[in-house]
Fold:
Amino acid sequence: GWPDVRHDNQGKIHYGADDNASGIAVMLELARQIAPKWQPQRTIIFIAFTGEEANLLGSTYYANHDNNYPTKKIIAMLNLDTVGRLGNNPVTIFGTGTAREFVHIFRGIGFVAGIPINSVLDDFGSSDQTAFIKAGVPAIQLFASAHEDYHAPGDTVDKIDASGLVKVANVLKEATEYLANRHDPLTVTIQPTENRAQIKPMTEKRKVSLGTVPDFSYQGKGVRVENVMPGSPAELIPLQHGDILIALANQPISDLATYSAILKTLEPGQQTALQFMRDGKTIIVDIMLTER
Structure:
């Protein structure tokens, strides 16, 4: 589980079937299927980055050392991360706000393929696409669902949804084929970094856990709870499915990124206040944060 192993899982095998063997499997299968058949107008680069959990080391290195395939020539980056437990959920696409056309591209793919797609404008700094966004490249992440086995020994292959992987692969295939044959660049809606040397991974790591599993399909203010971890502070409150977190430690929570940033400032054993909405009512509780 290095470098993000939880304190109670140290020394245990972390299989990583969903995060992120699932993404690697889909990428390799697409490469196997299209390499002997396609003749795209653009070069398609397949990369498996290392060090994503260690502050995006691999993707950040690539963004800073791109002599063979410079980022300034890349039309888009499509990232697969945690796509193995789709179930009845739509395929979530993070980062569709990085290019004006992305929302329309994925809406069309969903219609043609008959696969529900949830486009989320923000990318939340959640995975390797963030390194490319910082370099000015439109980039998205395909994602299936959040679950309690995230970064835990329970992330095993028997829990992978094979039919869901096929849906994710179909969405990826359609997006790749369109972009690889599109003549014009996408309309970038992010500000490219002026100095490439400034593209650096974040160094802060979160020490504490509240035990919430967020609803990634939610796009309103705050963070909506999908589920809670057993034995966590969230379960003791108890937080429920549908609760919306709006403030922690007297700091407003506007989205997942700010929620994560606030958690990084807190220490294990610290007692603080959590504010959340339930059924239209504001509730404030005192919580004791545990070690992550």
Notes: The first strand starts at residue 77 and ends at 80.
